[in-house]
Amino acid sequence: MHSPIPSYLDEVLQSVAADRTGVLANYIPELAEVDPERLGASIAMVDGELYASGDTDSLFTIQSISKPFVYALALADRGFEKVLDKVGVEPSGEPFNEISLEDSSGRPLNPMINAGAITTHSLVGTETMNRAERMERVISGLSAFAGRSLDVDEAVYSSEIEHAHRNLAIAHMLRSHDILTENPTGVVEGYTRQCSLLVTVQDLAMMAATLANYGIQPVTGEQVVPKTVVRQVLSVMFTCGMYNAAGDWATQVGIPAKSGVGGGIIGAVPGQLGLATFSPRLDVHGNSVRGVSLFERFSSDMGMHVMNIPTVARSAIRANYRIGSGEKITQVIQLQGRIRFAGAERVIREIVDTHYMGTRIALDVTRVYSVDEVAQHMLLEIMRRMRHEGYTVYLIDQDDTITNLEALRTMDVAVLGSIDELEYY
Question: Is residue 167 marked as binding?
Fold first, then answer.
């Protein structure tokens, strides 16, 4: 038996594959040479389960998606006061490479634009660290978010630093305001190397899931940054992560997110999951065209807008046990609480991973008080797949929690009022 989630990812990727609008990041020669047709997506749950489709193992550079993670490291290393003294948190409403500084202080408006990110890079680690030690802290920190060691693409770094005139100008202006207190060239070199780290779409999903999991890496269990830092980072991502498209993103998608000119986009749904997409062609804002479309679809299909979902997904599984004997031995999977996407995913995984002694399966939803439309569709689909594989499926549902009775009749799923009725079937 297989989960329907990978099939869903395949279908969604196929729905955007024909869109060839947008252009490559041609102001960086190395990025202008990438295959524009590459396309991938990944979902990482906060318990470490990973789903992916498309070009899942293709390596590309993280670019500006590094910004929220380096911001998190700076907050963890230097503290909120010292970082906020140098970098604000207000949306700029401008492109990522604009010189957006406060008139009075020269402070960058937020850490998601280049001026703020260059400053943030300089604040990672302790004040006594040299450039090499700071760079090692950045790489090891981002590697901790990903759960594996990340490497720098030296060819992309060389290509970017050769054309980093605007970032160098920004850095020199920051130095003139004493926002930077060291050699601006060295800071830009470090920032450019940070952006040149190689990742896959699965790495990005896991990094986003670490933010969604309040700073705990889902696989390694490491508390990469404190929970208070994550709240700050997600808040800034929500308001500033998509540059001058942040307002449209907040209303249409509603997920804290960050894009990069390498073609990646990440999103973090607190308490539930991390999302990532990869497609190199960019729109006028520097965001992946197909990536934006994918996130709009994910948000709509899965009900992920942060204004609609709770911050923490409680366990949807209450019990998994067997009753009866012989031909009537039945595996009972008892659900509880409010079931949304993350809860339905956990139920599906429980069903897929369970070892069955017979061919009778009962889903007990008597302790479930709400199932949203997306979760109901997912539960009906896994029941359909169980029936297709030859299992007899029962639904214990005394309060009509699952409302699509026609689908249940079509699949020949018996709806019972209590667990005791199983003995008559």
Answer: yes
Answer yes or no: is 43 within a domain.
Answer: yes
Active site residues: 64, 67, 191, 243, 261
pLDDT of residue 312: 47
- pLDDT tens for 356-384 read 999 999 999 999 988 988 999 999 999 99
The half-sphere exposure of 340 on its side-chain side, counting CA atoms within 13 A, is 19
261 labeled binding residue: yes
Residues 279 and 373 in one domain: no
Residue range 244-281, pLDDT digits in tens? 787 888 889 999 999 999 999 999 999 999 999 999 99
64 labelled ligand-binding: yes
Closest CA to 183 of 122, 106, 135: 122
Is 191 annotated to bind a ligand? Reply is yes
Which CATH number is 151's domain given?
A: 3.40.710.10
Rg of the chain over Cα atoms, rounded to whole angstroms, equals 24
d(CA 422, CA 327): 12
Report the alpha-carbon distance of residue 84 to residue 182 in Å, rounded: 18
